[in-house]
Amino acid sequence: MQGSMTNLAIGRLDLPDEQAWIALMGSNVMGGLVGSEYQFHPSDEETTRELVQLHLRGSQQQLRQWLDRLEDFEQQPEDLFLRLWSEDRQGYGYARIHQLRLNTLSGHLASHERGSLELDLDVVRETFFFSEEVPLPLSNSSGPPRESGVMIYNHDDAASGHDNWFKIGAENLNLKFPALTRFQIENNFNGPDLGDFWVGSLTCSLGQPQPKLNLEAEDGSGGTIFSHNQASGGKYCQYHWTGDDWQTLTSWVLGPIEVSQLTGTSVLPFLRNFNSLPDTTLQLRILVNLQGKLVFEGPATHSTPGKGYTSLDPLGLPLGELPMKSYASHHQLVLQAKQKEAGEHLLELDDLLLLPQHGFAGYHALSGLSNSMKLIEDGMSSKTWSLQDGMEFKSHNRIGSGLRLEPGLPQYFWIFQTDSNGLAHIDRTLLVNAWYRKQWRLP
Question: Which DSSP symbol is given to 255?
Fold first, then answer.
């Protein structure tokens, strides 16, 4: 690419103005640059190597300014980016630079003294360019997509806006590749601090209904139903049993659409107790029945006394590899419990969330997040941090693959929240905002 064809620069995104950039082609170049060539080299690999040739002629001061700026970048390549103007997209594309080497041609000293200089910039950059960051419209049952963010509750029932999920209509964003995202999760609940929480996502084929992954206890096959305004859906179930062997408490049926939507991913089951568990040795597990027969027996999970929830081992659905030329058969999920102590036992269960792990992040509290504090999940830097009054700190450690936005399909995100006491009350809330950057290989 010739200098007359494009605007090319290298610099840093984290500084506020053009002083952070040095133009190599096009407008706003420093004095002394008389020509440049950019050997653009697209690649299917994660990185690509390219060459930028600079032809300089001017005063000793102008040449020294070029050398000083470029040597500074060479010595500190961290957070350095290549910036390229795209006429087709009418915007800048940015690519992270992994390595920058400044090479001078033979005869450097003599030509420098005569006021001319030939420089080669050897650049190793990430293959993908990305766009400027723009707000991402989010929606749930509270209303249409909006860039101002959505309120997330810690349950999902028939009340409008009482959702533990939000939707991104990626099919309307004209994405060719997965987008880089930045999520801001604000604790706007006036109560105990936000403790551990988990975020999982799942794409959905066009025209299909929203995946139904929240299973109310009262919709299962067993238990005694009670009404209460602090229960999801206004109801919860009690299960009574005796003995020290495994006991089936209840079951739910996942229909063909729901099972098929989970193909290629796994779910992390979260059982929410209506009341925190007593100080007993309760074990829980999930079994899967297929065509009326037991085909899977999950590992036992020891519930923690005093906590308001139990997280079970990940579960892959549907069981086995299927060609998926039609819908998968329905699966029955069976919940069993076991107590080592003799006598009568009681479990009070509110609901079961099958948190998908197509894109997944678990946040384990260090200090927790108080009211009005915000946690940032930044896909571009792969970093997570929190903010209070504009100052950064680490409130949570993150595990998991991270949150990503796939192209072309609606994508849903679910959040399961707990507080600093290990409880998972349904009235907890979060405010979620998001931004994204498109990615492309060719400018």
Answer: -
In degrees, rounded to 5, the angle at the alpha carbon of residue 55 between the alpha carbons of residues 3 and 119 is 115
Beta bridge partners of 362: 198, 399
Q: At a CB cut-off of 8 Å and minimum separation 6, what does 30 contact?
A: 22, 23, 62, 65, 66, 69
Residue type, 87: E
Return all residues near 386 (Cβ < 8 A) that are at least 6 apart. 369, 373, 374, 375, 376, 392, 393, 394, 395, 396
For residue 323, cis peptide bond before it (omega within 30 degrees of 0): no
What CATH number has the domain spanning 134-440?
2.60.120.260
Whether 107 has a pLDDT exceeding 70, the answer reads no
Tell me: the pLDDT tens digits for 254-282?
999 999 999 989 999 999 999 988 767 89
* Of 405, 406, 369, nearest in space to 384 by CA: 369
Q: Give the Cα-Cα-Cα angle 383, 387, 392 (nearest 5 degrees).
A: 65
Give pLDDT tens digits for 393-427: 999 999 998 999 999 999 999 999 999 999 999 99
pLDDT at 86: 87
Neighbours of 300 (CB within 10 A): 14
| CA atoms 303, 191, 213, 220: torsion sign | positive
List pLDDT tens digits, range 142-190: 999 999 999 999 999 888 889 999 999 999 999 999 999 999 999 999 9
**Closest to 186 in 3D by CA, of 44, 358, 372:** 372
Question: Could you tell me how many residues make up the chain?
Answer: 443
CATH 2.60.120.260, the chain: domain bounds: 134-440
Which residue type does 93 have? G
